[in-house]
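FW: tagging you since you asked about this chain on Friday. Here's the raw sequence from the shared folder, copied in full. Didn't touch anything.
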Amino acid sequence: MRYVSTVRRASSAASGFLVGALVLGVVAAPTAAHANGRFPESNAIFFAPNDADVVLLRTTFGLITSHDRGKTWDWVCERSVGLAGVEDPMYEVTPDGTMLSSTFQGLAVSHDKACNWAYVGGELKDLVFIDLASRPSTPTNIVAFASSYDGQDDAGAIFFKSTLFETKDEGKSFAALGPSLDRTLLGSTVDVTPSDPDRIYVSAKRNPGTAATAVLLTSKDRGKTFEENPIALIAPENGAFIAAVDPLNADRLYVRTSNATDMPSRLLVSDDAGKTFKTVYTGQGALAGFALSLDGSKVWVGGPRDGLRVASTTDFAFTQKSSVEVRCLKLATDGLWTCSTEKSGFVVGLSKDEGATFETKLHFCDIRGPLACPVGSTTHTECVLGGTTSTASPPWPQQQASLGCTGDERDAGGGDGAVDGSIKPLAPDDGSGAGGCDCSLRAPSSTPLAALLAGLGGAIAFVRRRRRSR
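HL: got it, structure written out here
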């Protein structure tokens, strides 16, 4: 049986440290040339459309890549990709192996399997990119969503420039799909529909602080015009993010709400292209993972508190399949891939029985080290050497130490044995690890905008982390 699923996180954007503090109510500037301070966590999985062996794992300390369907894994540090402090980019892979990453500094692209990364220039230069989307029928085409701070008026109202761009040649060139969106809207997510090539959905918010309101924008002419409808939030929810569009019915879509903390969030469904929504599941905590079968008949949802639950989309009567701490979900032809924590027995697991049991695909201590790349590539320079300064030092040993992988931990968790929902948790990490690669964003351009964007990275990511995966 074939499946479709999506992996997303909460996304929002502005381009100034002070503006970010006002809008998001948090100040968290990234440190220079140091780990980003986050606890080690896996939180999204991506697959290549034309190469079943390629798997990308997003973590809080960089990108982990596999070229043998999860048998071995290698590390690409944040600085090579171009990440600014605390952020969780989206990734897409095109048929020729090109990788795209949405970052606060711009749209990063690698044409050589993650060895070299560079920002797209021209009209896309220095924009804050928050999301990526593609449809299975045209994997060469990727829609990239930028939403950046665009000033404020004398009354203090904050404006944003939110634009959809598309590549039809696997990241070689990009063009805007239509005019920028309403300046009062801060973008969150974008999705395209498998069954209608002209349908595009965008979620966004107004007043992205303590009084946020959420909206869904629906385009039936490929982004030229949009119809706006509200998404009702329940306090203290502060945003809504598209989880998926039904693969056979372009009018049915799923949305998850988000809170500023890991408080309960909801799964909503619309059967009229976003004009109205109904709640079909309320989580005990944040809903970190979502997956939908290719025929749209079955849906999975999960989180750290809820475990993994499944329901038919005819009645949405959810039942618990497992108690694993779900951090992301991704359905593929070989089963249900899940991000979790070592307390569940794995950080990446694969279930071939719809979530009842899991085969371990990765422990963090199984990561072999930096991805092997040519000398002079960004990944070799930043992740192997630690940069080009006179004080640069190899970052991987420090990253291993922060993961607790300096002794015999590689055997923790029982190897590749099956894990069921009632597994006895491993001893939890004591939290002493830094949780990030020993590198920050490679030096951006010296423009004031770039400096402001870098400073806002941590603040934006606070909101992005509220939507665990899509």
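FW: The first helix runs from residue 17 to 24.
HL: agreed, and The helical segments are 17-24, 78-81, 378-385, 396-403, 448-464.
FW: great, closing this out.
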